[in-house]
Amino acid sequence: MRDLRRQALESKKTVSRKAQSREASRATSHTNSAHNSRPSSRNASRHPSDDEDGESEGTAYSTPSLDEYFPSANDEETTASSESWQADLEDVVRDFNDRKRSSVLSREDALTAYVRILTSHYVEDALPDFNELLASFAKSIKSESSEKETVLALKAVSLTVLTFLDESIYDQMVSVLRRTITDSPSMPIKAAAIHCLGACTFFGGAGEDEILEQMNFLLEIVSSDGHYVNAGDDADVVTAALEEWGFLATEVEDLEHESEDAIEAFAEQLESSEASVQIAAGENIALLYEKSYTPLEEGESIDDGNDEGNNEFSDGEGASSLLLSDDEDAGGGGGVDNRPPLIKRYNPYHNTPRILRQVDALANVSGRHINKKSKRSLHANFSSILTTIANPRRGPQYSRAIDNETSRQYGTRKTVKIHQDASMKLDRWWKWLRLAALRRLLRWGFVTHYFEGSRGVLECLPVMVRPVMKKKVKGMDGGGSSSSSGGGGGKKGGRRKGVEMF
């Protein structure tokens, strides 16, 4: 996990037309043969691990057969260079809404342009004929005139709800999406509809009861290996359900009553023969263990009995670590924010030793039956997952190495860097799962949406920090802003002066 998803957030690679044609041909071949040779749900393909990141840049969802439906990086660059994209967007909406004069091909073209524009740009102003547009999306989804049109319409709905945060979208779309997931004969459409359901539930105005309802629906899909929605043993459908369950779970404050059944279902998926579905299930398990701990509330005292046994699997460090704050235990670095300690509130699962054995086996898996890429991915991801399950105070990529400057553990070192000068610390699993969901939605457009102030993105993720550089001027001894907390002169110019939050 050493590159921290850098490829997805920084890469500006282009793909030759020849390569695009080859990939589209391969995806078409995969789609045509899907009904004859569908992989098992135990062979699911989800968003790649850090070792695989560079290979997924052209995909919108984790489903390989959907690649041909979405614009590539070359298309994004073409759109980004256009100065009239706002006018183009209005034209696209008008053309798509005019269904009487449209054909399947023209609607596919309009949807492709709409998806490209909303991915490449943050649209602040309301769209004309917004409700009519949603109705047109719903018609394309329900009619399933072509697989491409339907998948693009589902993607368009996802981007629309993320961009505009209209709280009526969930109520308008939920029944259409549930029906599509259950009844559509196309597995790619089912998978895309599950991703769309996750986005509409999270961003489209659903309350906590509605979120839990959809999480139960997704869990049924996982538990039944897809049979619950007539997609028995289909890899992409089960993987989509795993991913969106984890995304929605980050929005629910208390999952005590749901935790037992969910971990049981995910533990079954750990027995998969494919690294991708194992990691998807493992991340959800780590999230549930993380959620069983909450900060000490004001006026609340630490009851030794209340935390009894919660360090049973914490690498033998002893009970003294129970009183460390989240910042200290997670290596936050000096107690800058003085966050309160995290206290265990409930047992997330009745048989944690079983989960630890499964996860430990995956963290140390070996054998010729696993390819090198999958083996690296399993080792990296499940070492991190194991650390959290053993001690839920610790987030992704926790390091117990001692920082010589602070004499404290480094803690969670998982960080996303953008443009070489901005970083986001992902010290909790909920942050990581939300970032993964936004990557599935926005792909190359994530950076643009973040820095242009997309409300959906900014409200979903933690604040990003950018180092403030102090330029060394000839004749000066390195003075600077009085707000600096350190980093004076030094042998080299441009030392870090502090941090800027935005």
From TrEMBL:
Biased composition annotated in UniProt, kind: Acidic residues: 297-310
Interferon-related developmental regulator N-terminal domain span: 74-389
Skewed-composition ranges (Basic and acidic residues): 1-13
InterPro entries: ARM-like, ARM-type_fold, IFRD, Interferon-rel_develop_reg_N
Chain intervals for the UniProt region annotation (Disordered): 1-86, 297-342, 473-502
Coiled coil start-end: none
Pfam family, one: IFRD
Bias (Gly residues): 476-491
Start-end of Polar residues biased regions: 26-43
Source species, domain of life: Eukaryota
Family indicated by similarity: Belongs to the IFRD family.
UniProt-listed PANTHER family: INTERFERON-RELATED DEVELOPMENTAL REGULATOR (PTHR12354), INTERFERON-RELATED DEVELOPMENTAL REGULATOR 1 (PTHR12354:SF1)
Protein name: IFRD domain-containing protein
Organism (species): Ajellomyces capsulatus (Darling's disease fungus)
Lineage: Eukaryota, Fungi, Dikarya, Ascomycota, Pezizomycotina
